[in-house]
Design goal:
The protein has 175 residues and is α+β, with helices and mostly antiparallel strands. Helices cover 33% and strands 22% of the residues. It is built from five helices and six strands, in the order H-E-H-H-E-E-E-E-E-H-H. Strands 1-2-5-6 form a four-stranded mixed β-sheet. A hairpin with a 5-residue loop joins strand 5 and strand 6. Helix 3 runs parallel beside helix 5. The longest helix has 19 residues. The chain is globular, with a radius of gyration of 23 Å.
Length: 175
């Protein structure tokens, strides 16, 4: 009969307990029901057209998180019963591809102040009675995005999120 050394048995016991205590990640919050976000034609967005030559991107890779973020943030500013419909008509993420630097850099997004993020959108805000309270078009652009954007290497929308937040922070009366 073989005996296992005590340190090995202790490590095995700790690993077993750790595995048993691991829980599944909580599900993402459900999308808000008082905000809808639509895209007109993402294939015609500036971001999609510009990146097609240098670095084909998966539009869902940034459009789905952008839609979820706008909806979650917008739902926080609405009064009970209000509803907001947003149609994004164009997206140009911060930065640009500069293929003229050579093939080794053609797939790298270069972030410079001359490549600000921009989101064009139309919106309609409805009151609790269903009547239109406000509607309009906005061009969200942040020329100083490099000065105040949070630095997070894993957030592909780190420059666009603060721009959206500044627009929504005005509240529903000044959208």
């Amino acid at each position: 009969m073989k005996f296992f050394p005590a340190p090995l048995l202790s490590a095995l016991a700790v690993l077993t307990l750790a595995c048993a205590s691991v829980r599944a990640a909580p599900p993402p919050p459900p999308p808000p029901t008082n905000v809808t976000v639509h895209y007109t034609d993402p294939k015609l967005f500036t971001e999609t057209k510009r990146s097609a030559f240098a670095h084909p991107i998966d539009a869902n890779g940034y459009l789905n998180p952008l839609k979820d973020y706008i909806a979650q943030r917008a739902s926080r500013i609405l009064a009970p019963g209000q509803r907001l419909d947003i149609t994004v008509t164009d997206v140009d993420l911060a930065g640009e591809y500069e293929p003229w630097h050579g093939p080794n850099l053609s797939n790298i997004r270069i972030i410079k102040s001359r490549y600000p993020p921009r989101i064009d959108l139309d919106f309609t805000l409805y009151g609790a009675d269903g009547k239109v309270l406000r509607q309009g078009s906005r061009i969200l652009r942040d020329m100083s995005f490099m000065d105040h954007a949070g630095i997070s290497d894993n957030d592909s929308l780190r420059y666009e999120r603060p721009m959206i937040d500044r627009w929504l922070r005005q509240g529903p009366d000044k959208l």
